[in-house]
């Protein structure tokens, strides 16, 4: 069985993708992941998530290559569904395509070793508001249940105190927070007064406060400045 905190987020993020009509991809896909009910547009084809056949042995092998253990909930995440993309809010997960997922993660590890893996940061995606760099599990501060804080590595601040920025206090809180974002089609993290309706600001602020309250020791604590920096 997979952890409910993982399945709830993934299922809701996929449902949001369907609502938004964003389940299209401009590349090759395994036949099992193609959704022919979605009309292609130019080179963009429809995709669907499918159950994985990933084993614990597969993940054990990747852990050995990375030299770091995965947080338990991240193992569930990798073993639950193959997908092209999920809701992006601060964090953009690496594509998890059925015939490419191992190569995708190996490539991520190969150029992350010196600055991340070798110091205990396990990359799993990227920070997507600033395109700062990789989103990582910070295994230097392992929690009693094996979980880890979630941070981002900022390539523009290497060697400075700003090189590593906080995002969430744990992967559990990350999945809980991202579930809330996926369940609300209003983007309550970002507001641009030039383009966005200012009448939506009170509701955005209400939702943002709820988001921060889910993780008072992470998103609502050390990472608060990050999450409140986008105009809401």
Topology:
Elements: H1 4-20, E1 24-25, E2 45-46, E3 50-51, H2 56-66, H3 72-80, E4 81-82, E5 91-93, H4 101-110, E6 121-127, E7 134-138, E8 150-153, E9 164-168, H5 171-183, H6 201-214, H7 224-227
The tally of helices reads 7
Low-confidence stretches: none
Q: How many runs of DSSP E, i.e. beta strands?
A: 9
- Order of helical and strand elements: HEEEHHEEHEEEEHHH
If strands are numbered along the chain, what order do they take across the biggest sheet? 5-6-7-8-9
Distance between the termini: 38 Å
Kindly summarize this structure in a few lines.
By secondary structure, the chain is an alpha+beta fold.
Structure, described:
The protein has helices at 4-20, 56-66, 72-80, 101-110, 171-183, 201-214, 224-227; strands at residues 24-25, 45-46, 50-51, 81-82, 91-93, 121-127, 134-138, 150-153, 164-168. By secondary structure, the protein is an alpha+beta fold. The protein has a 5-stranded antiparallel β-sheet with strand order 5-6-7-8-9. It has a two-stranded antiparallel sheet with strand order 1-2. Strand 6 (121-127) and strand 7 form a beta hairpin. Helix 1 packs across helix 3 (72-80) and helix 1 runs parallel beside helix 5 (171-183). The chain is globular, with a radius of gyration of 18 Å. The N and C termini lie far apart (38 Å).
């Amino acid at each position: 069985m997979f952890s409910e905190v993982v399945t709830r987020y993934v299922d809701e993020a996929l449902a949001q993708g369907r609502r938004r009509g964003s389940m299209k991809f401009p590349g090759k896909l395994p036949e099992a992941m193609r959704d022919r009910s979605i009309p292609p547009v130019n080179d963009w084809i429809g995709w669907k998530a499918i159950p994985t056949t990933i084993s614990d042995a597969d993940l054990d092998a990747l852990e050995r290559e990375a030299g770091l253990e995965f947080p338990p909930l991240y193992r569930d995440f990798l073993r639950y569904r193959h997908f092209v993309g999920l809701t992006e809010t601060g964090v953009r997960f690496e594509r998890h395509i059925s015939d490419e997922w191992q190569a995708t993660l190996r490539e991520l590890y190969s150029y992350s070793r010196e600055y991340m893996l070798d110091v205990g940061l396990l990359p799993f995606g990227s920070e997507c508001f600033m395109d700062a760099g990789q989103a990582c599990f910070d295994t230097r501060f392992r929690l009693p249940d094996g979980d880890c804080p979630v941070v981002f590595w900022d390539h523009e601040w290497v060697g400075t105190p700003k090189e590593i920025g906080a995002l969430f206090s744990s992967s559990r809180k990350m999945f809980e927070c991202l579930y809330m974002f996926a369940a609300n089609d209003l983007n309550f993290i970002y507001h641009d007064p030039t383009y966005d309706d200012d009448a939506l600001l009170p509701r955005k602020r209400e939702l943002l406060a709820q988001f921060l309250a889910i993780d008072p020791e992470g998103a609502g604590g050390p990472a608060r400045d990050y999450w409140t920096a986008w105009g809401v």
